[in-house]
Amino acid sequence: MRAPASTFSVFLLVLSGFFAVADQQLPADEQRPPAGYSGLYTRISRAVVGITRRDYPRERARSIITHYGTGTLLDPVGLVLTSPTVVPEGSRNIDVYLHGGRVAAAMLIKVYPEKEISLLQLKDFRRALPPGQERLEYLRLGSSGSLALGDPVFSLGNAFGSIQTDDQVAMAAGVLSGVVELKEKHLESTYTGPALESTAALNNGMDGGPLVDSRGRMVGLLILNFSRQRWLGTAVPIDGMKRLIQPHRSWFDDSLEDGAPLAGLELMGSHEGGRITILKVNPGGPAAEAGLRQGDILKSFNDEKVESVAGFRKLFKDSRPGQEVRFGVVRDKTALSLELTLWGRF
Amino acid sequence: MKKFTRSKFNVQARSSRRLYCLLALLVLAPCPRVCADAASSQIAALRELETRIKTVVAACKPAFVFIKGDQGGGYSSGSGFCISPDGYVLTNDHVIAGARSVQAYMAGGRFFKTTVVGRDPGGDVALLKLQGGKFFPFLELGDSQALRPGQRVLALGDPFLTGSESIFDPGAPANFEPAVSMGIVSAVHRYSETYNDAIQVDLAVNRGNSGGPLITLDGKAVGINGKIETRFALGINTGVGYAVPSNQIARFMKYLKSAEGGVVLHGKIEGLIVGERADEKSGLPVTGVRQGSPAAASGFKVGDLLGSLGGLPVRTRSRYMGILGTYPAGESIGAEVLRAGGKLELEAVLVAGGKAHLGIKPRVVSGDIEGVGVGTVERSTSAQRAGIKEGDVITMFDGEAVASSTDLKRLMNRRRPGDTVVLRISRSDKVLELEVTLGGK
Amino acid sequence: MAGGAGLPGHSKQRLLFPFALSLVFLQPHGSLVASEAGSVSALAASLEDWVVAIKVNRSKDIQIPRSQLPFNGRGSAESQSYYKRPEGYVTGFLVDRHGHVLTSNYNLLGTIKSVTVRLPSGKERAATVVARDPLDDLALLRLSGGGEVATKAQWREPPWAEASSAAAGSLVFALGRGPSPERMNLSEGIISAVGRNSSRAVQIDAKLNYGNVGGPLVDLDGKVVGICGFVGHVYHQWGLNSGIGFATTSETIRRILPRLLEGKDVKPPPRPFLGIQSEPAGGGNDGAPVIEVVPGSSAASAGVKSKDVIIRFNGEEVPNFTRLRFLIFSRKVGDEVEFVVRRGEKEITLKGVLGKFPERR
């Protein structure tokens, strides 16, 4: 009868171990009693930025702020998500205020009005880096579909100018209060459709900022629209936004599995016989650092000939983060061989 | 074959035992999951929070004070809280400003008259003392510098006077129960005029909450709630409230206690001008130092980069003003500056900012006396404290004759708040010499 | 981790065991479709069957005079619409299987043409107003056309909370069905104070608005502490989502519901009256001094004399007249009360029956 006894004792051991493991799985802020969310704030507030628009560049003496709002850093090298109510099409003189009082200029790269998204890129993210750091802090994306009624959610941002005046990202706490179908447009918001409603305070200047869950992941984009029944803060659910955002983070993708390699460039294949051009080199990524440039024609990868984008992808798929790879390109009729170390999922 | 048969038999025996264990496991598997769930569930965590809140509320409520200021034609209402067993009470200055007398109600409807011990209108704080009782329940002040955004806080107050007035049925008396609300610290060190170093909170505070305590989950008062932003509707909370931090109040306490009903002034580094924002992580630039000023005397020089003030980092002018705003005039403050690549520690004595204020409304003098007639004496001013009365005529100001209010103005302009002057007063047939410590405005 | 095909049966069994174990570990957290046991959403879901959505068709609504609004009602477009009741579903609470629905009286103000109740099943039924209780901001509807909403076997009584359970600091949730009736909405908060509205209501800091007024207020045990009310454009002093909210308690509801079910409006109860004249709090806290005893009042019958000082009332300390008034008002006409007066050096216990407050002319 020894076999069952030992099996049963393993079973008991496992059971008791489960309790221990289960508790360890909870991040600090979900442990009891919840004295608050200061740990959460410390973890994520640096990924939330203030954004201002001015009539003239900041360096000009008479320059004044015409609009202010909030944005979220989505990658380590300065992609910022905000709303067109903060940065509409055609905006200039956009400044991003980061933790510690650093201010960096940004440019608008894309507006998706149907989801009330504006995407910005810091012109030179290195100027925005805190001393001793090589990458910016950014927010992970969560799942708005996984939220349950009553789950704690938080709004973060530039409430009444708290970031550009006091270097303070303001946080408010609430719960997911409901999902509402927004039909009217209020204030300057243009978003209609399903929206997350939360009891976390939303005020002037917080539009464009993130609604985060208790794990610190972004689950919505805060907007100024509201339902006239509830008058609560609303957010565009992140799930419907991911496919629009991801291509701009194409060299950094949250949905990548652990171990997937990143080079930081976008390719474009041509219809005319096998010419593959580098369409975009993500600033600050490994390809950029290696010296690859937009417009280079890709010829080989790790000394193997590349004839199509699909072909490149197949070769690329087998590489690993940290691996040194070689890109053979042609630039201005000159053949170049550039080496870089692949990054991985952060 | 034999071996196989035997092992097959063994396998079967073992496997059926294993199967039973497996079945048991699968049946019981939800059990640890549910148990773990119950243990780690939202509701379980909320229950613990609820117990904590109720404990804190029960402990702090007895120290709560409903404040009523008699304004003559009506009452100004607000909140306050007792901070010592002998009955000192903190509230906002704006709750009691202009009141001729201040009354207080505590738990169980107990009523107390109060005296105004000291006022800090520049920081919107007032210190009162309850009369006619002993051993009052009180709150301890906590450390506001230790507050972190995200931290849970509670507020006690009387929003829309739901506790101290009857709002549903005009005939029904109130039950004098304060209202408690809960939220988090949204941000710290928020700067605005008067609320120089405010704690921003998202809990519900509204008209009537002014003067009430901001409390941490360990039952200490870390601030006085006093101001809110509004959005769609006037006077209704939208999740942004501001509180005066307890560390600022603690610094003012001894001055408030000895103010004899008067005003305590905030300090500034006279003669120092700083830039708007620190460039590139170094320090806030000193852009001007007036010759002969206290700033010059303290050793500041143009070009210095201010790194910290009062031990706290400074990167913007508003933060510079914010830190100073938590200091009373007369205190000294340490400053760390970078000069020519090296660090220097300087110390500045803070003087009262603003213009010197006497507190009288002049009126034309009848008769042969040359001087400035006193029309009305403003409440809680240096003139009132010195004993100047309506009908008096000021004939001399620190040894100089005053013939008109223009003269008086000219002489006052040379003075700073806190200066002591001697005024010669003509009252009926008498001539008095009164010493007046000038207030500020 | 799964055992591969083609392995001898012996090894397969070996692998099944840890495989089953791993299932235990790998069950996903936070799966949403079914609410996780012990979650707030499960708590809300447990109330689903009683929370209904109501559509009110009006020809005219109650208006607030412009002079009462900030800026005389001339603010921005948003702030103007803040004080206008929006269209759409509001919330109610099913109290019996005969189709009686409690809601906020505010939801039924104005000149009503028709009322439709949408049951949790999705079925819509016409309803009529049975009776009102404006003092508690409650009103009772009944689904028209008779019939039951559930059989006797199916029906469960709403989980009303005990009177004693609510206290300042209790965590509570306000549930509603507006504007999207298919899904409930939820606002969280705490009980700010008990004993409001002459001890008929609790005050809460949960955000109340047009979308949840008339709905239940629930505690952590899933019990209904009260029905939320006193919110809406008519209650413009504290507006919406201000953190000032009220819920008439389950205890009050249990008391007045029988009358409402009879179709009778609930009027404010007659004010109780002891019958003394005193001075408002202004002196010390040593009692309520009796200046005059009203002849024929219960104080007179009890033997109170002028210059007595009332120091205790029904076991509670009386520091002053302000407090005494509140204690008297918390009782009802006809209640037997016992109080202690200080007469000279002695303390005398007196008994009386509270009378009715005399009508003012």
Characterize the structure shown.
The complex is a heterotrimer of chains A (346), B (441) and C (361). Chain A has 346 residues and is of the alpha+beta class. In chain A, 16% of the residues lie in helices and 33% in strands. Chain A has a 6-stranded antiparallel beta barrel. Chain B has 4 domains: 2-40; 46-262, Thrombin, subunit H (Beta Barrel), CATH 2.40.10; 267-352, Roll (Pdz3 Domain); 356-440, Pdz3 Domain (Roll). Chain B has helices at residues 2-28, 30-40, 42-60, 93-96, 246-257, 294-298, 317-324, 382-386, 405-413; strands at 64-70, 75-82, 88-91, 101-106, 110-120, 125-130, 152-157, 179-190, 198-201, 213-216, 221-228, 241-245, 267-268, 272-274, 284-289, 305-309, 312-313, 332-339, 342-349, 351-352, 356-357, 360-363, 372-377, 393-397, 400-401, 420-427, 430-437, 439-440. The radius of gyration of chain B is 31 Å and the shape is flat. Chain C has 7 helices and 21 strands. Chain C has helices at 9-26, 40-45, 77-82, 196-199, 250-261, 298-302, 321-329; strands at residues 51-60, 90-94, 100-104, 111-118, 124-133, 138-143, 171-176, 185-195, 201-204, 216-219, 224-229, 245-249, 272-273, 276-277, 288-289, 292-293, 309-313, 316-317, 336-343, 346-353, 355-356. Residues 1-13 and 18-34 of chain C have low confidence and may be disordered. Chains in contact: A-B, A-C, B-C. Chains B and C meet through helix 1, helix 2, helix 3, strand 5 and strand 8 of B and helix 1, helix 3, strand 8, helix 4 and strand 18 of C.
